[in-house]
Amino acid sequence: MRLTRYFIPTVKEVPSEAECASHQLMIRAGMIRKVAAGVYDLLPLGLRAIRNVEQVVREEMNRAGGLETFLPSMIPAELWAETGRWQFYGKELLRIKDRHDHEFCYGPTHEEVMTDIVRREVKSYKQLPLTLYQIQTKFRDEIRPRFGMMRAREFMMKDAYSFHVDEDDAATGYERMFKAYEAVFKRAGLKFRAVEADTGNIGGNSSHEFMVLADTGEDTIVSCPACSYASNVEKADVPSPAPYAAATPDPMSEVATPEQRTIDEVSAFLKRPPDSFVKTLIYTLDGKEQVCVLVRGDHEVNEHKLKRILDATTLELAAPEAVQKISGAQPGFVGPQGLKVRILADQAVRGIANGVTGANRDGYHVIGVNEGRDFKVTAYHDLRNVKPGDRCPRCQKADLEFHKGIEVGHVFRLGMKYSKAMRAVYLDKNGKEQVIVMGTYGIGIGRVAAAAIEQSHDANGIIWPWGLAPFQIAVLPLNVAKPDIADAAAKVEEELETEGYTVLHDDRDERAGFKFNDADLVGYPIQVIVGDKGLKNGEVELKIRKTGERLNVKLADLKEKLRETAAMLAAG
After folding, report:
1. Within this chain, do residues 506 and 566 fall inside the same structural domain, yes or no?
2. If you ran DSSP here, which 8-state letter would residue 431 be given?
3. In a domain, 135, yes or no
4. What pLDDT, on the 0 to 100 scale, is given for residue 200?
C-alpha cells in the first residue's frame, strides 16, 4: 500500500482533551477522531487495528466451538422487561421510542436477545451445548466517558453466550471459554491477569475479569505473591479477623463535636485513632427499605459485597432526609444505638470495645460504645474493601499486592438467571422439561487495541504488538526523487506483500526525519529503510521498533531476516 494513496492524518501536538497515552497516540497517529463525548470516528488505520483484534478473537472463538451470529443493535423493551432489567439497568441504558411509540434500547449487551433465539429454536438436550457469539457495536450511556477508546459510550464488543443442560456442562463450557480468552490476549501480545470479579448488572453465580496490567488502568486488582489468588478489589475477600480479647466496658458518654463530621475530623478533635470508631451509614435498598451498615472507622464499605449479601437490585446511600427520619441526625452524626432498622456490620466491628460513634444528635458523638449493651447487630459479614497490609484470604501467607489494570474481557457463569425468567427450556432424555443453564463472555475490541498501546509505547509513539499492528512493515525510501531508490523501495514493497506481510510504503516526497518520526509515531513493528548508502552495497537497513535495534541486511537476505524477526516479534 502506497502512503500517498492512503489516509493517515498524523498530528504533532498532544491533544488537550486526551488524558491517557492511548487516547493521545490514537489521535496523533491518525487512528480516531472525536464526534461527541465518548463517540469516535475510526479512520482507516484505526479500523485496520480493530479488524486485527476482531480476527484474533474470531479465530479463538471458532476454535472454542463458538458459532458467529449478528444480532440487531436495537432491542424491544419487552425482552428486557422479561428479566427485569428494563426497570433496573439505570441511566446507562439508552432508551428510544419509534414512530409507533414502541420502546427500544440500544443494546449494551444481548443476553435477552440471544436467550430469545434459543428458547424458540432449541427443544431437545441433543441440541446442547450451544455457544453463539457476535462482534457488534454497543452503546452504554456512561456518565463520564473518558480515555478515548478505553471508556467510550459507543464501542465494539465481542459477546458470546453458551447454553447447557446442567451446571457441570456449564462449568466445562466456562473453562473452555476461559482458555480461549487466555489465547486471545496472549496472541494480542498483552501482559494480563485473570482475576475474580463481581458479576454487576449482568448477574450470575461467578465471574472473572481479564485485566491488562497498566499504571493508567481505572481498576484496582489485588494478587498474592505466595499463591495464585487474584481478584478485582470489588470482589476481594477479607479474612476473618483473629478473636478479640474481651475488654471492660466503659460508661457511654456524649461529647460535643461541633462541625466535625468525618472520621478524620472527629479523630483529630477527640484525639482517638480511626480504628476505634464505628462508622455508621444508612443505605436505601431497592428504593424502599433502609438498612444500617457499620464498618471500622479506618475501613470503607464495599457496596458490591453489600449488594450481594442483601440480594439487592439497587443500593444507594440514603438521602439526608431519610437519615434524619431514622436517626434524628444529619449524616456525620449518626450512630447505631437506638435505630429501628436492620443493622449489618463488618466482621472487624466485633473487635471495637469502648468505641466512638455519632450520637444521633447533630454536633455530638458518643464514646464508650459497645455492641451488645448499646446496640445489636443483625448479622456480621465481610463488608469492606481490602487495603494495604491485608493478608491473602486464601493462603494467609503474604500481604496482598495492589496493581492497576484495564479490563479487556469478562466471563460469567449465569446459571439460570435469564433462562428461567424467559422460560428457555429443553426436554431431557426422559422427556422432562428442564431449564437451560447459561454463560456469557465479553471482550472489548477497541479496548484491547487501546490497552495494547497503554502497555506498549514510548516517548516517540506506539509500539504495536505484531498481531495487532495495522501494518506490520513500513518501507521508507529516503529520497523518492532518485529513481534507483524509488524503484528499489517499490520492489521491496511488492516482494514483501507477496510474502504475506501487510506493508505500507511511505512514498511521500518528505525529509527522512519526517518519515522516521511518523513511522515511530504510528508504531510499525519493522521499518525497512532504503537509502543511497545501503543500495551501493546491495543493502537496506532494518529497524525493529520494539527494541530500537538497527541492522544492515543484504537485499538477497531480506526475506529470510524478516521471517526470523517476525517470528521473534510474534512470540512476544
Report:
1. yes
2. S
3. yes
4. 63
Number of structural domains, the chain? 3
- 139 and 222 fall within a common domain: yes
Domain ends where: 320, 349, 381?
381
**Range with lowest mean pLDDT among 59-73, 151-165, 245-259:** 245-259
The one-letter code for the residue type at 84 is G
Compute the mean pLDDT over every residue in the chain, rounded to the nearest whole number: 94
pLDDT confidence of residue 31: 97
Give the burial class of 493: count Cβ atoms within 10 A of its Cβ; 0-12 exposed, 13-18 middle, 19 or more buried: buried
Q: Which residues contact 381 (CB under 8 A, 6 or more apart)?
A: 305, 309, 344, 345, 346, 347
| CATH for 223 | 3.30.930.10
Asked whether residue 193 falls in the same domain as residue 47, the answer is yes
Report d(CA 86, CA 84) in Å as an integer. Answer: 6
Mean pLDDT of 409-414: 93
Provide the β-strand partners of residue 27.
none
Q: Are residues 49 and 101 in the same domain?
A: yes
Q: Which residues of 414-425 are buried (b: 16+ CB within 10 A; e: fewer)?
A: bbbbbbebbebb
Sign of the alpha-carbon dihedral angle for 118, 178, 21, 144: positive
Beta-bridged to residue 369, according to DSSP, are 355
The CATH number covering residue 552 comes to: 3.40.50.800
Residue 377 lies in a domain: yes
Residue 394 DSSP one-character state: T
Handedness of CA 515, 517, 522, 523 (dihedral sign): positive
Domain boundary among 336, 352, 381: 381
Is residue 394, in this structure, part of any structural domain at all?
A: no
On whether residue 387 sits in a domain, the answer given is no
pLDDT digits 0-9 by tens, 520-535: 999 999 999 999 999 9
Confidence of residue 19 (pLDDT cuts 50, 70, 90): confident
Task: State the pairing for strand pair 425-427/401-415.
Answer: unpaired
* Overall residue count recorded for the chain in this entry: 572
pLDDT given for residue 203 in this prediction: 56
Question: In this structure, are 52 and 168 located in the same domain?
Answer: yes
The answer to whether the beta carbons of residues 386 and 348 sit under 8 Å apart is no
Q: Which of 212-226, 239-253, 289-303 has the lowest mean pLDDT?
A: 239-253
What is the three-state SS of 14-45? CCCCCCCHHHHHHHHCCCEEEEECCEEEECHH
Residues 356 and 229 in one domain: no
Report the Cα 141 to chain-centroid distance in Å: 16
Do 339 and 218 lie in a common domain?
Answer: no
Q: What angle do CA 332, 335, 341 make, to 5 degrees?
A: 115
- Which residues, 6 or more positions from 561, have their beta carbon under 8 angstroms from its beta carbon? 542, 551, 553
Q: How far apart are CA 535 and CA 106, in angstroms?
A: 57
- Domain residue limits at 337: 253-381
Nearest Cα to Cα of residue 31 among 560, 551, 464, 549: 464
Same domain, 145 and 175: yes
pLDDT value of position 54: 98
